[in-house]
Amino acid sequence: MRIERLRLFEVGLPLVHSFQTSSHRKSGLDHILVEVTDTEGRVGWGEIASPADPYYCSETTVTAWHVASHYLAPRVVGVDWEHPDELDAAFAKIRGHEFAKAGVSGAVWDLFARAQGLPLATALGGTRTEVVAGVSLGIEPTLDALVEQVERQLEAGYGRVKLKIAPGWDVEPVRAVRAAHPTLDLHVDANGAYPDTEETAAVFAALDKQHLTMLEQPYAPRDLMAHAALQARIQTPVCLDESVVDLGDLRTMIALDAGRVLNIKVSRMGGLGLARKAHDMALEAGIPVWCGGMHEFGVGRAANVAISSLPGFTLPSDVSGSDKYYAHDVVLPPVSADHGVVTVPTGAGLGHQIDVPWVQQNTLRTFDTAAVPA
């Protein structure tokens, strides 16, 4: 196969409900959609779901745009290839910039699956026809508002709830939700906001008594020793997210017992192919995995559904319905959940069509290799 054209669309969409983590609050998102076209006229779509600000990771929409247009596009357009994994090898020379790589790689995977007449899940080796979805809730102004948000998601059919926590917003919110729902599948995510101190140790000891499914990314990404020490002290499984960017990180996590659950984010791992390899490694080590999200538009969300169909994804993934985040998504039909379960599409590629007029209506800027001087 050969791709003859690559286009980027930076698209801005408002969120249905603003979302706050330990670092910032957001009411809308700008993500970059990637469109690739091969010599037969077939089209594939991917999504660069990088944050606008360097809080979750060092990448931003600005850096991803630069890397995708200046460094990744030349390694894709006009290149002969047989399988998307070949492009992962071509991208390896570029250090970091996993979100940018994941978006371009995702478009190539969609194109590849469409050309084969296969659902993306099947092309990846998925075995499930349905994926259990969970929801992630941000920091709310009050405890009552948080409990109300939890109630709303439970009424929508979601059985797993993840709460964002931060210093000063941790034990009491969890206690409030747990008191209201004693048997809820509940876990918390700190996004690396806590220092490794005695005061923090007391917070995590208190959370350990709340029967949580997992405690996600309590410490800074590179502090794997602190995570290993914490895991040795508490019964709640520690889940790593930001700490595991590549397979070397995962090997270190396993060797140190720094975590007993892995959040696989396609964007953080650099693409579907590398995410699948992380899944395989974790499965062999007996570590359960689930697919985390970055509030993706429908393109990235559909890719997450596909990867979540692999056998090692035994925990609910962040693949809830589009309507939880966006009043009007960029795919048709939108990703939907029925009582917290998402059906894996059976159509070729992503299994969704792109609402191109809506994309164009919300596009902030574009890039087109066809317009780049030779």
Automatic annotation (TrEMBL):
An MF annotation (GO) of this entry: racemase and epimerase activity
Residue spans crossing the bilayer: none
UniProt domain Mandelate racemase/muconate lactonizing enzyme C-terminal: residue ranges: 143-237
Family annotation (Pfam families): MR_MLE_C, MR_MLE_N
Cofactor: a divalent metal cation
Superkingdom of the organism of origin: Bacteria
One GO term (biological process): menaquinone biosynthetic process
SUPFAM superfamilies in the record: Enolase C-terminal domain-like (SSF51604), Enolase N-terminal domain-like (SSF54826)
Enzyme class: lyase
InterPro entries, alphabetized: Enolase-like_C_sf, Enolase-like_N, Enolase_C-like, Mandelate_racemase_C, Mandelate_racemase_N_dom, OSBS/NAAAR
Keywords tagged on the record: Lyase, Magnesium, Metal-binding
EC number: 4.2.1.113
Name of the featured protein: o-succinylbenzoate synthase
Native species: Galactobacter valiniphilus
